[in-house]
Design brief:
By secondary structure, this protein is an all-alpha fold. It has helices at residues 2-14, 22-40, 49-57, 63-74, 78-109, 123-140, 148-169, 175-189, 198-208, 211-221, 230-254, 261-267. It has one domain. Helix 1 runs antiparallel to helix 2 (22-40), helix 3 packs across helix 10 and helix 4 packs across helix 11. The longest helix is centred in the middle third of the chain and has 32 residues, at 78-109. The two termini are 18 Å apart.
Amino acid sequence: AFFVGLCAGVIHFGTLNSHRVDLQKSFLAAFLGTLVALGLTLLLPPFNAVRALFGGVTLLVPAMVVTLGSLELALEAVEAGLSRLMYGLLRFLMLGVGITAAGTLWRFGGPLPPHVEQHALPLLLTFIVVAVGGVALSVCMSGRPRDVAWIVGGVLLAYGTQELTKMLFGDRGSPLGSAFVLGVAGLLYGRGKERMPMTVIMPGMLQLAPGFIGTEAIVALLGAGTAGAQDPRLFNVLLVALQLVLGLMFATVVVPPRITVDSGAARGLPARP
C-alpha cells in the first residue's frame, strides 16, 4: 500500500494545477498503482494485493465530490448536486478502467495472483492506525494545524460508528446510519465561527466511501476475487453510495447548514480528492 500510495500521490499532487487532466490522472494512478501492486506479489511474501491497492489509491476516491453533491441535493440545489455526483461517478469509473486495463495487460504475461485471505488487526491497534491516517489526511487536505484534531476525530467517528453498526447489523453494517452520524457531527461543528462542516465530514467519508468494495468488484470480474461474489458486488457499490447520500441528506434535515454548500466549499478545504 505504501508503494502504491507513493505512485498515486506523485501523480495526484503533480497534476493539482491542471483540472483538465483530473479524470485522466485517476486512470493513470489506478493503472500504474495496480501494476505496482501486482508486481510486488512476485517479490514479497503472499499478501492481499486488492487491499494494498485500495489502501494506496484511497486518496483518489471521489469522497469530497460525493459529499458536496449530497449536501447540494439536500439543500434543493438539484442541478449542481447531480452534476457533482455524476462527476464523482466518472472519477470512480476512471479508477475502475485503470485497474481493469492494468489487470488485462498483466494477464498477457501470466495469471493474476491468487486471492489471499486477510487477517484483521486488533481493534485498538486499528484505531491507532486509523488515527495516524487521519493526521496524514490533514496534510493531504491542506488543513490548518488547529483542524488536525477535528479531522482525526471525523475519521475515528466514521470508523467507530461503522464498526458499531457491523456489530448490530452484521456484514457491512449501516452506511446510512454512519453517514447520518458523521453528517450531524460535521454540521454541528460547522456552526462554530470560521468552521466548515467539510473539515469533519470529508475525512470521515473516506472511511465510508464504497471504494474498497468497488475495487473488489473490479478485481473479481478479472477472476482474482472471492469466488461466487462477482454479481452482487457491483450492485453493493451503488447501494452503499446511495445510503451515504441519504445519510447526509437526513443529517441536513436534523441540523440545517448555516451557510450554502458552494460558499463553504470556496472558503473551506480544497475539493480533493
